[in-house]
Amino acid sequence: MSNVLLKVNKIKKYFPKKTGSLKKNMSYVKAVDDVSFEVFEGETLGIVGESGCGKSTTGRMIMRLLEPTDGSILFEDVELSSLSKTEMRKARRDIQMVFQDPYASLNPRHTVKKILEEPLIVHGIGDKKERQTRVEEYLEIVGLSAYHAQRYPHQFSGGQRQRIGIARALMTNPKLIIADEPVSALDVSIQAQVLNLMKRLQEDLKLTYIFIAHDLGVVRHISDRVGVMYLGRLVEIAPSESLYAEPLHPYSQALLSAVPIPDPTYQREQIMLTGDTSSSTETGCTFQLRCPYATTVCKMNVPELVEVRPGHSVACHLVGEQQ
Ligand code: SF4
Protein backbone atom coordinates (compact mmCIF):
# COMPACT_ATOMS: atom_id res chain seq x y z
CA MET A 1 0.00 0.00 0.00
CA SER A 2 1.31 3.47 -0.87
CA ASN A 3 1.88 6.20 1.67
CA VAL A 4 -1.00 8.33 2.86
CA LEU A 5 -0.67 11.74 1.20
CA LEU A 6 -3.82 13.31 2.62
CA LYS A 7 -5.82 12.41 5.70
CA VAL A 8 -9.20 14.04 6.19
CA ASN A 9 -10.49 13.43 9.70
CA LYS A 10 -14.07 14.13 10.80
CA ILE A 11 -14.36 17.41 8.92
CA LYS A 12 -17.53 19.45 9.18
CA LYS A 13 -18.73 22.56 7.43
CA TYR A 14 -21.87 24.09 8.88
CA PHE A 15 -23.28 27.25 7.31
CA PRO A 16 -25.49 29.38 9.59
CA LYS A 17 -29.01 30.00 8.36
CA LYS A 18 -31.67 32.31 9.79
CA THR A 19 -35.07 30.64 10.13
CA GLY A 20 -38.55 31.47 11.48
CA SER A 21 -41.04 34.03 10.18
CA LEU A 22 -38.94 36.92 11.57
CA LYS A 23 -35.64 35.29 10.59
CA LYS A 24 -34.52 35.53 14.20
CA ASN A 25 -33.76 31.89 14.88
CA MET A 26 -30.42 30.47 13.88
CA SER A 27 -30.00 26.97 12.51
CA TYR A 28 -27.27 25.37 10.43
CA VAL A 29 -27.00 23.82 7.00
CA LYS A 30 -24.68 20.85 7.44
CA ALA A 31 -22.92 21.02 4.07
CA VAL A 32 -20.29 18.51 5.22
CA ASP A 33 -20.83 16.45 8.36
CA ASP A 34 -18.20 14.25 9.95
CA VAL A 35 -16.42 13.17 6.79
CA SER A 36 -13.20 11.13 7.02
CA PHE A 37 -11.06 9.51 4.32
CA GLU A 38 -7.47 9.04 3.25
CA VAL A 39 -5.87 9.59 -0.12
CA PHE A 40 -2.85 7.46 -1.01
CA GLU A 41 0.12 8.65 -3.07
CA GLY A 42 -0.38 8.06 -6.79
CA GLU A 43 -4.05 7.06 -6.64
CA THR A 44 -7.24 8.67 -7.88
CA LEU A 45 -10.02 8.93 -5.34
CA GLY A 46 -13.32 9.70 -7.03
CA ILE A 47 -15.89 11.56 -4.91
CA VAL A 48 -19.40 11.28 -6.26
CA GLY A 49 -22.82 12.60 -5.32
CA GLU A 50 -25.68 14.81 -6.44
CA SER A 51 -25.49 18.57 -6.35
CA GLY A 52 -25.50 19.77 -2.72
CA CYS A 53 -23.97 16.57 -1.28
CA GLY A 54 -20.91 18.44 -0.02
CA LYS A 55 -18.32 17.07 -2.45
CA SER A 56 -17.15 20.48 -3.76
CA THR A 57 -17.23 21.97 -0.25
CA THR A 58 -14.95 19.13 0.84
CA GLY A 59 -12.54 19.93 -2.02
CA ARG A 60 -12.54 23.59 -1.13
CA MET A 61 -11.82 22.85 2.53
CA ILE A 62 -8.79 20.78 1.52
CA MET A 63 -7.57 23.76 -0.53
CA ARG A 64 -8.43 25.95 2.47
CA LEU A 65 -10.56 28.13 0.27
CA LEU A 66 -13.13 27.39 3.00
CA GLU A 67 -12.32 26.86 6.68
CA PRO A 68 -13.80 23.69 8.23
CA THR A 69 -16.16 24.20 11.16
CA ASP A 70 -14.43 21.25 12.82
CA GLY A 71 -12.09 18.36 12.07
CA SER A 72 -8.57 18.08 10.73
CA ILE A 73 -6.91 17.83 7.33
CA LEU A 74 -3.36 16.48 7.25
CA PHE A 75 -1.28 16.80 4.09
CA GLU A 76 1.98 14.84 4.33
CA ASP A 77 1.31 14.60 8.10
CA VAL A 78 1.07 18.39 8.48
CA GLU A 79 -2.19 19.84 9.81
CA LEU A 80 -3.22 22.41 7.22
CA SER A 81 -5.20 24.52 9.67
CA SER A 82 -2.03 25.04 11.74
CA LEU A 83 -0.29 26.78 8.81
CA SER A 84 0.05 30.53 8.63
CA LYS A 85 -1.08 32.32 5.47
CA THR A 86 2.49 32.32 4.13
CA GLU A 87 2.97 28.62 4.92
CA MET A 88 -0.39 27.79 3.34
CA ARG A 89 0.61 29.69 0.21
CA LYS A 90 3.68 27.45 0.01
CA ALA A 91 1.56 24.34 0.59
CA ARG A 92 -0.65 25.37 -2.34
CA ARG A 93 2.30 24.68 -4.61
CA ASP A 94 1.70 21.03 -3.79
CA ILE A 95 -2.12 21.10 -3.89
CA GLN A 96 -3.75 22.54 -6.98
CA MET A 97 -7.27 22.63 -8.31
CA VAL A 98 -8.88 22.13 -11.72
CA PHE A 99 -12.33 23.69 -11.97
CA GLN A 100 -15.51 22.66 -13.75
CA ASP A 101 -15.90 25.65 -16.00
CA PRO A 102 -12.57 26.45 -17.61
CA TYR A 103 -13.96 29.60 -19.21
CA ALA A 104 -15.08 31.10 -15.89
CA SER A 105 -11.82 30.17 -14.18
CA LEU A 106 -9.50 31.65 -16.86
CA ASN A 107 -9.20 35.43 -16.95
CA PRO A 108 -10.57 36.40 -20.40
CA ARG A 109 -8.34 39.50 -20.58
CA HIS A 110 -5.11 37.58 -20.07
CA THR A 111 -3.16 35.65 -22.67
CA VAL A 112 -2.56 31.97 -22.01
CA LYS A 113 1.08 32.83 -21.30
CA LYS A 114 0.07 35.24 -18.56
CA ILE A 115 -2.44 32.75 -17.10
CA LEU A 116 0.14 29.95 -16.95
CA GLU A 117 2.94 32.20 -15.71
CA GLU A 118 0.92 33.54 -12.80
CA PRO A 119 1.35 30.56 -10.42
CA LEU A 120 5.08 30.59 -11.12
CA ILE A 121 5.30 34.30 -10.24
CA VAL A 122 3.18 33.82 -7.10
CA HIS A 123 5.49 31.03 -5.91
CA GLY A 124 8.72 32.73 -7.06
CA ILE A 125 9.61 29.94 -9.48
CA GLY A 126 12.16 30.67 -12.23
CA ASP A 127 13.26 33.82 -14.04
CA LYS A 128 11.48 35.27 -17.08
CA LYS A 129 13.19 32.98 -19.57
CA GLU A 130 12.67 29.85 -17.45
CA ARG A 131 9.01 30.74 -17.00
CA GLN A 132 8.58 31.18 -20.76
CA THR A 133 10.19 27.77 -21.38
CA ARG A 134 7.99 26.13 -18.77
CA VAL A 135 4.81 27.68 -20.22
CA GLU A 136 5.66 26.31 -23.67
CA GLU A 137 6.65 22.92 -22.25
CA TYR A 138 3.39 22.52 -20.33
CA LEU A 139 1.25 23.64 -23.26
CA GLU A 140 2.78 20.76 -25.20
CA ILE A 141 2.40 18.34 -22.29
CA VAL A 142 -1.38 18.96 -22.31
CA GLY A 143 -1.63 18.54 -26.08
CA LEU A 144 -1.54 22.20 -27.17
CA SER A 145 1.32 24.08 -28.88
CA ALA A 146 3.81 26.73 -27.84
CA TYR A 147 2.24 29.27 -30.22
CA HIS A 148 -1.04 29.05 -28.26
CA ALA A 149 0.67 31.04 -25.47
CA GLN A 150 -0.14 34.36 -27.16
CA ARG A 151 -3.86 33.64 -27.56
CA TYR A 152 -6.79 34.44 -25.28
CA PRO A 153 -9.19 31.94 -23.65
CA HIS A 154 -12.11 32.80 -25.98
CA GLN A 155 -10.03 31.65 -28.95
CA PHE A 156 -10.14 28.03 -27.74
CA SER A 157 -12.78 25.30 -27.67
CA GLY A 158 -14.14 24.05 -24.32
CA GLY A 159 -11.86 21.01 -24.35
CA GLN A 160 -8.80 23.13 -25.16
CA ARG A 161 -9.70 25.57 -22.39
CA GLN A 162 -9.84 22.69 -19.92
CA ARG A 163 -6.38 21.62 -21.14
CA ILE A 164 -5.20 25.15 -20.28
CA GLY A 165 -6.86 24.81 -16.85
CA ILE A 166 -5.00 21.54 -16.32
CA ALA A 167 -1.69 23.07 -17.50
CA ARG A 168 -2.17 25.93 -15.04
CA ALA A 169 -2.70 23.45 -12.19
CA LEU A 170 0.49 21.62 -13.18
CA MET A 171 2.77 24.66 -13.41
CA THR A 172 3.97 24.44 -9.79
CA ASN A 173 4.70 20.70 -9.97
CA PRO A 174 1.96 19.75 -7.47
CA LYS A 175 1.59 16.40 -5.71
CA LEU A 176 -2.19 16.50 -5.35
CA ILE A 177 -4.75 17.80 -7.83
CA ILE A 178 -8.35 18.32 -6.80
CA ALA A 179 -10.39 18.20 -9.99
CA ASP A 180 -13.90 19.53 -9.34
CA GLU A 181 -16.20 18.22 -12.10
CA PRO A 182 -13.43 18.82 -14.68
CA VAL A 183 -15.34 17.30 -17.62
CA SER A 184 -18.96 18.04 -16.69
CA ALA A 185 -19.16 21.16 -18.89
CA LEU A 186 -17.70 19.36 -21.93
CA ASP A 187 -19.32 17.40 -24.77
CA VAL A 188 -19.29 13.65 -24.17
CA SER A 189 -16.87 13.11 -27.08
CA ILE A 190 -14.40 15.57 -25.54
CA GLN A 191 -14.81 14.21 -22.00
CA ALA A 192 -12.98 10.97 -22.89
CA GLN A 193 -10.05 12.93 -24.38
CA VAL A 194 -9.65 15.04 -21.25
CA LEU A 195 -9.97 11.98 -18.97
CA ASN A 196 -7.33 10.14 -21.01
CA LEU A 197 -5.05 13.18 -20.80
CA MET A 198 -5.47 13.31 -17.01
CA LYS A 199 -4.69 9.60 -16.74
CA ARG A 200 -1.55 9.94 -18.86
CA LEU A 201 -0.37 12.97 -16.87
CA GLN A 202 -0.93 11.05 -13.65
CA GLU A 203 1.38 8.28 -14.81
CA ASP A 204 4.02 10.58 -16.32
CA LEU A 205 4.11 13.11 -13.47
CA LYS A 206 3.28 10.76 -10.54
CA LEU A 207 0.22 12.78 -9.57
CA THR A 208 -2.45 12.02 -7.01
CA TYR A 209 -6.02 13.04 -7.85
CA ILE A 210 -9.22 13.72 -6.00
CA PHE A 211 -11.76 13.61 -8.82
CA ILE A 212 -15.14 15.11 -7.95
CA ALA A 213 -18.13 14.24 -10.16
CA HIS A 214 -21.90 13.99 -9.96
CA ASP A 215 -22.24 10.55 -11.50
CA LEU A 216 -20.51 7.23 -11.15
CA GLY A 217 -20.13 6.81 -14.92
CA VAL A 218 -17.59 9.63 -15.29
CA VAL A 219 -15.21 8.50 -12.54
CA ARG A 220 -15.38 4.79 -13.34
CA HIS A 221 -12.30 4.52 -15.56
CA ILE A 222 -10.12 7.01 -13.76
CA SER A 223 -10.67 6.12 -10.09
CA ASP A 224 -8.81 3.54 -8.02
CA ARG A 225 -11.29 4.08 -5.20
CA VAL A 226 -14.61 5.88 -5.07
CA GLY A 227 -16.38 7.63 -2.19
CA VAL A 228 -20.11 8.34 -2.44
CA MET A 229 -21.50 11.36 -0.58
CA TYR A 230 -25.10 12.09 0.29
CA LEU A 231 -26.27 15.29 2.02
CA GLY A 232 -22.91 16.08 3.60
CA ARG A 233 -22.01 12.53 4.63
CA LEU A 234 -19.73 9.93 3.13
CA VAL A 235 -22.07 6.95 2.80
CA GLU A 236 -19.77 4.47 1.06
CA ILE A 237 -16.11 4.25 0.09
CA ALA A 238 -14.51 1.33 -1.69
CA PRO A 239 -12.03 0.18 -4.32
CA SER A 240 -13.61 0.84 -7.74
CA GLU A 241 -13.97 -2.85 -8.70
CA SER A 242 -15.77 -3.59 -5.45
CA LEU A 243 -18.11 -0.58 -5.67
CA TYR A 244 -19.06 -1.06 -9.32
CA ALA A 245 -19.46 -4.84 -8.96
CA GLU A 246 -21.58 -4.61 -5.83
CA PRO A 247 -22.51 -1.26 -4.34
CA LEU A 248 -23.79 -1.78 -0.80
CA HIS A 249 -25.46 1.50 0.13
CA PRO A 250 -28.98 1.93 -1.33
CA TYR A 251 -28.00 5.39 -2.62
CA SER A 252 -24.90 4.03 -4.41
CA GLN A 253 -27.09 1.27 -5.89
CA ALA A 254 -29.50 3.88 -7.27
CA LEU A 255 -26.67 6.02 -8.65
CA LEU A 256 -25.05 3.04 -10.36
CA SER A 257 -28.35 1.85 -11.81
CA ALA A 258 -28.57 5.17 -13.70
CA VAL A 259 -25.19 4.67 -15.43
CA PRO A 260 -25.71 3.47 -19.03
CA ILE A 261 -24.17 0.09 -19.92
CA PRO A 262 -22.36 -0.11 -23.29
CA ASP A 263 -23.49 -3.75 -23.83
CA PRO A 264 -27.05 -3.58 -25.35
CA THR A 265 -27.70 -7.27 -24.53
CA TYR A 266 -27.34 -6.59 -20.81
CA GLN A 267 -30.35 -5.10 -19.07
CA ARG A 268 -30.09 -3.45 -15.67
CA GLU A 269 -33.12 -2.23 -13.83
CA GLN A 270 -32.94 1.46 -13.00
CA ILE A 271 -33.75 2.27 -9.39
CA MET A 272 -35.88 5.41 -9.39
CA LEU A 273 -35.52 7.42 -6.20
CA THR A 274 -38.45 9.47 -5.00
CA GLY A 275 -37.91 12.91 -3.42
CA ASP A 276 -34.78 14.96 -3.90
CA THR A 277 -31.75 16.08 -1.93
CA SER A 278 -33.88 18.58 -0.01
CA SER A 279 -35.65 15.54 1.53
CA SER A 280 -33.91 15.41 4.88
CA THR A 281 -34.68 15.08 8.58
CA GLU A 282 -32.94 16.24 11.73
CA THR A 283 -32.31 12.76 13.15
CA GLY A 284 -31.23 9.41 11.85
CA CYS A 285 -29.96 8.48 8.39
CA THR A 286 -29.89 11.42 5.95
CA PHE A 287 -31.17 9.12 3.19
CA GLN A 288 -34.19 7.75 5.10
CA LEU A 289 -36.90 9.73 3.22
CA ARG A 290 -35.74 8.40 -0.14
CA CYS A 291 -34.64 4.93 0.89
CA PRO A 292 -36.82 1.94 -0.06
CA TYR A 293 -35.42 -0.05 2.90
CA ALA A 294 -35.81 2.52 5.70
CA THR A 295 -36.93 1.14 9.07
CA THR A 296 -37.50 2.60 12.53
CA VAL A 297 -33.82 2.35 13.46
CA CYS A 298 -32.95 4.46 10.40
CA LYS A 299 -35.16 7.25 11.76
CA MET A 300 -33.48 7.17 15.17
CA ASN A 301 -29.75 6.68 14.61
CA VAL A 302 -27.20 8.00 12.16
CA PRO A 303 -25.41 4.97 10.66
CA GLU A 304 -21.63 4.99 11.11
CA LEU A 305 -19.24 4.19 8.26
CA VAL A 306 -18.17 0.58 8.91
CA GLU A 307 -15.66 -1.52 6.95
CA VAL A 308 -17.53 -4.58 5.73
CA ARG A 309 -14.94 -5.91 3.26
CA PRO A 310 -11.26 -5.06 2.89
CA GLY A 311 -11.20 -1.33 2.03
CA HIS A 312 -14.98 -1.25 1.46
CA SER A 313 -16.88 0.75 4.07
CA VAL A 314 -20.54 1.67 4.14
CA ALA A 315 -22.86 3.67 6.41
CA CYS A 316 -26.16 1.80 6.45
CA HIS A 317 -27.94 0.01 9.31
CA LEU A 318 -29.22 -2.73 7.07
CA VAL A 319 -26.17 -3.66 5.05
CA GLY A 320 -26.26 -7.40 4.58
CA GLU A 321 -29.98 -7.63 5.26
CA GLN A 322 -31.38 -5.99 2.12
CA GLN A 323 -28.91 -7.68 -0.24
FE1 SF4 B 1 -31.72 3.20 4.03
FE2 SF4 B 1 -31.70 2.85 6.64
FE3 SF4 B 1 -29.56 2.23 5.21
FE4 SF4 B 1 -30.26 4.78 5.59
S1 SF4 B 1 -29.60 3.35 7.16
S2 SF4 B 1 -29.61 3.86 3.70
S3 SF4 B 1 -32.48 4.64 5.55
S4 SF4 B 1 -31.56 1.25 5.10
Automatic annotation (TrEMBL):
Pfam families: ABC_tran, oligo_HPY. It comes from the Bacteria. Keywords: ATP-binding, Nucleotide-binding, Transport. One of its GO terms (molecular function) is ATP hydrolysis activity. GO terms for biological process: peptide transport; transmembrane transport. Residues 6-256 form the ABC transporter domain. InterPro entries: AAA+_ATPase, ABC_transp_ATP-bind, ABC_transporter-like_ATP-bd, ABC_transporter-like_CS, Oligopep_ABC_C, P-loop_NTPase. Belongs to the ABC transporter superfamily. This is Oligopeptide transport system ATP-binding protein. It comes from Ureibacillus xyleni.
